[in-house]
């Protein structure tokens, strides 16, 4: 056995390393994450990187992948030595990575996410990308729609997509960070087969896992980290599983699982004939002191069963707690019955990620923590400390955000919260997913202690060894039905896996498989769906509403349709379209631009100095667009370099730009010459050419957002900047580009407004900032970033301008313009919320 206690230089080998990390150091405030760590990956070999949570494993591979910048050390990749890398640079030099939490921006489609992850030389042409990805998925046996939105998929599917993207890169180095945590046994076997194929091609593979049997099965080399330092390395064949665990935790683990009771007590939870969309006729009991396990090949109904018991709805049958019939029709009714579900997606659905440990722990006992509704901080601290004391949560303070904790500590906080809530039934999904070996022992002891205290504990796990050691009874589901019911000594890893893979369904031949459960073990390719109908629905609805307003107004006053009015209306619409697009490109990145109105004014002022003749007008337009883009760049640098919040940065620049415009034109002036006005105001059949130009710009923006790498980057940054960075998107640069585009588009709106007024006025356009926000809200653009349609923005701008113009013909006060905008904003904000609630109810039914 080879064992070291400090970082050493890797042993030279006959084959040169394809990835070499030398003396890597990385510190965070109060934490030394990596301390002189060195690592070599050899071609055709799997190198396991092991350690407890917080040992530095993910930080180390983040350095290699470019998502973490080291403080010291060098990175050898692609035959070159680097002080640091960017994610895109690492991918271009042959490194692909699959993160523990998939680095896929949720608002992107699957095909856009995969294209973003691929290096430039591996990207197919955008026009054939869907066909290429469909074929790639089919080759891998994955049943995933390339045009599905990532946020609509499960974490398991997201993992498979990221793995598929990594395989498509044909990398020289593949980094896998806890790749099997969200996968079932069959998918894990599939992944191991792909790893073997990559080894045959000479790929070097870094494999991070907490599952020692996986290390023994597929890895040839290992490096063990503890507290940011290398404490062991060598060939896997030189170590036993127990020796590896001892290196990881720094102590010997004489027993991993707590002792099981000799016999169960009276029933605490009774389930009879429970059926739902993905499972049928499930019956079992959990006695006092018992822990029951749910197992099966992924997608066979076990997860749906657990969530149905937790109140997800859509299930029927009888559920009794301590002999009393209870309702599980909703999460609220299940909670009222004392049933607590701890979902496997801790940060996504189980925890309040940005809230503190204290706030997360006391969430289940607010009545006790805040008697009478009044905050008592001392009481909250007392309850939190008492709940987490036995779990040894590693944190400097109870006010630390729970998202900053390791996976094991997050799970301990969840269990502490559950215990504080005094549950009668505890349902736990993947309790040790992403949890290190030492923390697993503590979690197992906690679950057993809860069972002995009278809580009915039901555990769903993809780890058959875990179920064997922890559970008193294991139910193996296949195609939604119980295929094996294992008790006592019958519970073995072989029996659990065999019960799932060797289930005999002959007696169910006359029944169709439940919805959502695959008919075969091998996934079948999914034909891509056409999404254009849904994408076209919103602008079509806005245009239809515009027609209704036009007809209603014309019915009251036919002069509304006179050519002169229509021409002026459309010219004003071109201004709104451009300011709406300006706001869109910033909001889609998760920001906002409050300087749009001031840029419009500045642009009009700049053009007014060159509008005396058509000959000089071109120079004025170029200077106006350059000035707008410059303002955008300044805004972008304030946000990215100085980290000023976008709302403050653009508000400050708005005041400065307006001041500059007023200095340039203290009074309105610089009237346009006749030939310049004729050029700017040119029309064809009463349709202003500026509107045509605005629609061309709209089409161009739509193309950029949906069909280019820049557009994918803009949407990815808005959806999740951390994931976008890991996908290789240059986040800061993308935000600066968005601000610059916004400034240029705002300047274009200023030119259009000058064509409408014919004079330079520093006070014009100030109301357009509010109008731009109104337009994007009406267009259904997510104010949180990540999604939005340029076509919908143009349709919303036209609708808003038609309504504003119609008010004069309806003899309504101009004040109604602001009322109408406010009403539209409220309706546009509320409708999506109602639609989401409706979808949730339908899914539950």
Automatic annotation (TrEMBL):
Q: Where is the protein localized? A: Cell membrane
Q: Which UniProt keywords apply?
A: ATP-binding, Cell membrane, Membrane, Nucleotide-binding, Repeat, Transmembrane, Transmembrane helix, Transport
The protein's matches in InterPro entries, at most eight in alphabetical order, are given as: AAA+_ATPase, ABC_carbohydrate_import_ATPase, ABC_transp_permease, ABC_transporter-like_ATP-bd, P-loop_NTPase
Q: What is this protein called?
A: Ribose ABC transport system, ATP-binding protein RbsA
Q: Which PROSITE patterns match?
A: ABC_TRANSPORTER_2
Membrane topology, as annotated: Multi-pass membrane protein
Q: Which GO terms describe its cellular component?
A: plasma membrane
Tell me the first and last residues of the signal peptide: none
Q: Name one Pfam family in it.
A: BPD_transp_2
Give the principal location in a single coarse category.
membrane
Give the GO molecular function terms.
ATP binding; ATP hydrolysis activity; transmembrane transporter activity
